[in-house]
Amino acid sequence: MRTDGEIKLKPCPFCRGEAIREKWRLPLMCLDVPAWRVICTECQVQVYGMRKCDASRKWNRRATNAD
Question: How high is the pLDDT of residue 31?
Fold first, then answer.
């Protein structure tokens, strides 16, 4: 697993593959908005966030710790 500051990415919840973060341009209402995504290197499932920490927290959230 790769780390970013204090947020360590969990393995993919579907295939247990490694996850990576990358800058991304999120298409939003005909604009490309700077954002971040976390993507599984194996099955390509992904989540997005406007900030790096948002995407990381979304990725690490599991049904057992949902709010």
Answer: 78
Give the DSSP H or E segment for 57. helix 52-60
**Coil, strand or helix at 65:** helix
pLDDT tens profile 21-31 = 999 887 777 77
Counted residue by residue, the chain has a size of 67
Distance CA 52, CA 22 (A): 8
Pair 64, 36: CB distance under 8 Å: no
pLDDT for position 5: 62
Domain definitions of the chain by residue range: 3-62
Q: DSSP string covering 31-56, please?
A: EEEEEEEEEETTT--EEEESSHHHHH
